[in-house]
Amino acid sequence: MWQLIILRHGSEVNRVLLYFSSHTYFFQIPVMLNNYSPRFDRQTSDLTILFKSTSNYLQTSITLLKRLFYSFTRLFFNKLKFKGKGYYIFKNARNTVTHQFGHAHRIYCYAYNVSVKFLNKTTVFIYGISSQDVLSVSYQIKAMRPINIFTGRGVRFSKQVVYKKTGKVSSYR
Q1: Cβ neighbours of residue 83 closer than 8 Å, sequence gap 6 or more
Q2: Domains and CATH numbers, the chain
Q3: 3-state DSSP: the chain helix, strand, coil percent, rounded to 5?
Q4: What is the pTM of this model?
Q5: I need a surface site. Which of 64, 67, 98, 99 has the fewest CB within 10 A?
Q6: 10-residue averages of pLDDT along the chain (173 residues)
Q7: How far is CA 116 from the centre of its chain?
Q8: Beta bridge partners of 133
Q9: Distance (Å, rounded) from C-alpha 29 to C-alpha 19?
């Protein structure tokens, strides 16, 4: 799925450029060989990076690099459901999501890096390549109409359990 090219500069001995490319993405990473050295095995198609020393900066960069590759190979999604009379959510062509929940004004949620699809009248499917973007848009939509603890109406995640609180009048009946 990914193609890798390792280039060494002739004038700079300690610097290597790693070129990663797929059908849709292309990026390069400059690597200084003082702390680690990359090796690529052609038979198994594995990239091995040998570390000579470890530091907090190096561990953070490795974690970010792993997260980057994981996000390009996986698709993250979230499903939201809402319950209530006359409640609906809609979006426009620019992927701006808004609701009609009985407020005097509209609250907009801008979803630039994710895609929003409506499965039915009360279910919204949010997906994208970044888990952080998907979760932030999901929580923004959920914050538009929080769940009412007495009636159970509002926006919730698809498998979220909603407990209703007994009211003052219904507890004596």
Answers
A1: 122, 152, 153, 154, 156
A2: 3-73 (no CATH), 76-157 (3.90.930.12)
A3: 20, 40, 40
A4: 0.59
A5: 64
A6: 73 72 76 70 76 72 74 81 75 74 76 85 85 89 86 87 79 64
A7: 13
A8: none
A9: 7
